[in-house]
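Input sequence (164 aa), recorded before submission:
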Amino acid sequence: MKKAIGLGLLVAIFFAIFVLLQDYLGTSAFYMAAIAMAMFTVLGPLGDYFKTAIAILIGVVVALAGMIILAVKMPLPPDNLLFVALISGVSLFLLVLISTAGMRIDAMFLGWAAYLAAVFSTYTTNTPAMATLALPAAVGVSVSLLLGLFMSLLVMKIAMAVNQ
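Predicted structure, token format:
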């Protein structure tokens, strides 16, 4: 029980630090909590956390590349719906191809979707801002997801310590 309390305190401290730094990361602490719980359900007690972390980063990079292509090479909103669909389809197909090499498709989709959720409204309303927002958003989303992954590992250890 002491181990569970200690790990719970560690999770609380990490989350508090994240709340303090959320403006620097360009993300929301509550979004982070949702991601942590999503990772908890996706990985389970015997998940491969390192491979999942790599897969998350691959998903973010693929989404970043897709958004850069959309912002630079394709027609700007609102005349771009066909191109958004095309880039999204190609991106997801690329993730499926990468998953055949052993990467977790669910984690790649999570990284891809989290990045698009972070930048898509800016892309559709202020596309020129993507020049300065795209990379910092990718860093913020990556840090958030990886911290969520770490927190889910701690939450899983708490659950296992309590159930012993």
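Checked by second reader. The radius of gyration is 17 Å.
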